[in-house]
Amino acid sequence: MTPRTKILSGLVRHVILLTTGSLVLVPFIWMVSLSLKPPAELFSSNFTLLPEHWFAVENYTKALTAAPLPRYMLNGVIVCAAILLLQIIVCAPAAYALAKIRFAGREIIFGFVLIGLLIPHQVLALPLFILCYWLGILNTYAALIFPFVVSPFGIFLFRQFFMSIPDDIVHAARLDGLSELSIVWRIMLPMSLPAVIAFSIVSVVGHWNDLFWPLLVVHSQEFMPPSLGIVTFANAETGNDYGPLMAGATLVVAPLVIAFFAAQRWFIEGLTAGSVK
Amino acid sequence: MVGVSVRGISKSFGSASILNGISLDICDGEFLTLLGPSGCGKSTLLRIIAGLEQQDCGTIEVAGIKVDHLRPKLRDVAMVFQSYALYPHLTVSENMALPLRMRRLSAWQRLPVIGALLPNVRSVCTEIKTEVARTAKALGIDHLLSRKPSQLSGGQRQRVAVGRAMVRHPAVFLMDEPLSNLDAKLRVQMRGEIKELHRRLGVTFVYVTHDQTEAMTMSDRVAVMLDGQVAQVASPRQIYACPADRRVAELIGAPKINLLEAAPRGEGLLAIAGSTLAVDNVLDFGDSVTVGIRPESLQFADRAGLNTLTGRLRYVEHVGADLFAYVDVPGSREPLVARLPVELASRLQSDQTLHLRVRCEQALLFSADGRRLSEGDGQVTPLRSYAE
Fold first, then answer.
1. How far is B89 from chain A (nearest CA, A)?
2. Counting beta carbons within 10 angstroms of the beta carbon of residue A2, is it exposed (0 to 12), middle (13 to 18) or buried (19 or more)?
3. Alpha carbon distance B335, B384 (integer Å)
4. Chain centroid to CA B365: how far?
5. Annotated Gene Ontology MF terms (chain B) (predicted)?
6. Does residue A9 sit within a domain?
7. Which CATH number fits domain B2-241: 3.40.640.10, 3.40.50.300, 3.40.50.1370, 3.40.50.2000?
8. Any domain includes A221
């Protein structure tokens, strides 16, 4: 390939990537842009990305004060942290058993995990809702957390990663005196850090942004996670005052974006691990 | 006293039978090598001794105590793996300290933060640290203690793996091909170091390898394993000089022993490869017999005669002090290998006819079923030396 065609192909590649990338990013950028504008400019006919009169402070102040946005965010943190912690506590030993311990029916059980992976959450919503009702946990944190504690995706991801860890490591750990559970916590999980981080991102992003389930089981503001909070905020407080609403949405998304950039490297490593070799 | 006693161990995976009634007594403080080709079950046996696999039947005793139902942790054995199996997320010192921490601290005491506040923990930790440092020093890895395994060379990892096994003073060391991932030069060096370690510690070593040089140089005794059974247990010298059967003779020795089919001619004579060997007629050969001749048991001879084989020289291999002559003899598809002094090189040319005299006192006879034929106590000399 001549240097010239090389440059040309590179150029084409980048044009395509930039176009698709910006298509994905446009709504996001528009949201941030709107959150900086005064109401008068929101529907103005001339298109500008940056506002003529900066209105950021007012919009963001309103977003933070008119609705209990900090409360929603705190709820989000509590729920997501609890879900993630419980998911790891449940999934890691299960995945270890499926990856490293020989027992009758192991393949069948793993088959069930795969089936679990295929069932969309919405299909289970009604039975889970009724179960929550029977348990009397509707409109509590528990209702937001418990349906997600067992994650087929988590079990599957950890199992794949644990399979790539040599058996000799497990044998050495047994000889060194570690119990099976200690092997999970002290050896397998630390060695699978990329998988843990990738799973954490998927889990936290999923449940931070989840609107469907909270909408069903929570109706008091004190338990609402951010996404549901934004919805009620839009209905009750703002009407068509979109500036503060967009400011609120920006604030809700910000932690995820920051976390993703911080953990990007491990994220990709974790999802592709085991696919090569 | 017995270090490890293996009684009637059998093991199969599915329909594949790996071990068939293995029995073996390993003396206290002995260096015993399990030698065999890959797939003969030697690693499985080692894992069963360690408790990492469960045998189908039979029992294992370590230092006189039955350990069949004990978990690996409680068996007082330590193992060095072929892959070293170091924990990649822990430093060298943490790797070596882990077996001690697991034994000397309770689950509560091992917890991060909270554990450090409990009584005694600090003193135990200091004690562990001192012992790790002492072991590391003995192995010459004390400068590597804060490194992660990924920052170490193969030889250094090997030493850390040995250190992790050594630090808790087990009654038995199990080693599963620990040198096979090292390059040739380092392997020779580590061979010496492991032997020296055994001498210094004086505990039982069970060492698995498929490398006969390792087995011959390091062991007090070698157990040759073939097809899930122990074919012979003896000192390296005996294994080489008096193999119990044909398969053992073929396994040990490089180049391989020459095996020639022979037909008894009566009156103490064997017809072999176009010539005749004189044998004691005390032995009952049956119809056919195989003669095993090591390459060094063949000598250069000027002319044909009794106990002398004649063939056409195919090619010569120089190995420094000696040379190996590959000779085609009648009735054998494989060339005969003879180890000859290097001074003969100038007199040897391809395709020439070569006479090789068999040193009869070193030749081995095998019956049709593969057993070695011997007189009385198993000493060799079924062949009569021919006095000229």
1. 6
2. exposed
3. 25
4. 24
5. ABC-type transporter activity; ATP binding; ATP hydrolysis activity
6. no
7. 3.40.50.300
8. yes
| Residue A151 buriedness (CB in 10 A; 0-12 / 13-18 / 19+) | buried
pLDDT at B325: 93
Q: Which residues of A touch B50 (CB under 8 A)?
A: 171, 175
Tell me whether residues A166 and B83 touch, CB distance under 8 A.
Answer: yes
| Residues of B within an 8 Å Cβ radius of A | 47, 50-52, 71-73, 77-79, 81-83, 85-89, 98-99, 102-103, 164
CATH number assigned to the domain covering B255-373? 2.40.50.100
Q: What integer best gives the mean pLDDT of chain B?
A: 88
Helix (H) or strand (E) holding B265, with range, is strand B258-266
> Does residue A30 lie in a domain region?
no
Give the 3-state secondary structure percentages of chain B, helix then strand then coil, rounded to 5.
30, 35, 35
pLDDT at B376: 47
Mean pLDDT of A182-206: 91
Domain at A237, CATH number: 1.10.3720.10
Asked, for residue A124, whether it belongs to a domain, the answer is yes
Residue-range definition of the domain harbouring residue A141 = 66-272
